[in-house]
Amino acid sequence: MNEAFHKLPKEKQQDICNAAMEVFGDYEYKRASTDLIASKAGVSKGLLFYYFHNKKALYLHTFEYVSKIIEDAISDTHLWEITDFFELIAYGTEKKVKMLIENPFILRFSIRCFYSQKEEVSGEIQTEISNGKNRKYDTYFKNLALYKFKEGIDPEQIYHMLVWITDGYLHSRQMEGKPITIEDITKEFTQWAAMFKKISYKEKFQ
Question: Could you give the CA distance from residue 201 to residue 206 in angstroms, rounded to a whole number?
Fold first, then answer.
């Protein structure tokens, strides 16, 4: 990415990122038009490729931009005060849902990005997603009240299982051609979290 992009006014940077999120969210990578992105962002295609040397660089920057929005939306003072695993899950989910409602392009981009296959960017994106899961656990769950868990239960495994179940749900909906809504995801995730709480917490903490 050209440093000239960072010298743009913040509003113009956001216009470009929002346009990229929208188009990359609506189309798979190879069919996403940089002409359309430039048009929606209000810049020429030449300028777009001046700021980002190629389509792949623009896509990877958009992925980083979305990841930052999500992290900023979840992280606040109260988050670091929560020591209960499932309270933390619930709080983070609530904050993330609010952010998704306020940023309608992020959900579509994230889902398409997560399930990109055999695309020029797929390998790097999947590596970043995998690494991101581990970083998130290490960052957000470092102050857990471990005494609430039954002996032999690893909270990190519970975290990954919840992530895998959510991934499977989204993949199933996508393969069946069914719509994916924030309300449905939240409802299902809340039920799964409640089920895992009964399985993993000592009875007096359930």
Answer: 6
Residue among 16, 36, 22 nearest 109 (CA): 22
Tokens for 201? 């917490």
Residue among 77, 76, 53, 57 nearest 65 (CA): 57
Q: CA 139, 197, 95, 161 torsion: positive or negative? A: positive
Tell me the C-alpha distance between 52 and 37, whole Å: 12
| 137 sits in which H/E element | helix 122-140
Query: What are the tokens at 41?
Result: 């962002």
β-pair partners for 201: 149
Pair 107, 133: CB distance under 8 Å: no
Token pair of 205 as six digits: 């903490």
CB-CB contact of 69 with 17 (8 Å):
no
pLDDT higher at 119 or 165? 165
**pLDDT tens digits for 37-78?**
999 999 999 999 999 999 999 998 998 898 888 888 888 888
pTM of model > 0.90:
no
DSSP state of 201: B
Residue 198 one-letter amino acid: K
CB distance 111 to 180 below 8 Å: yes
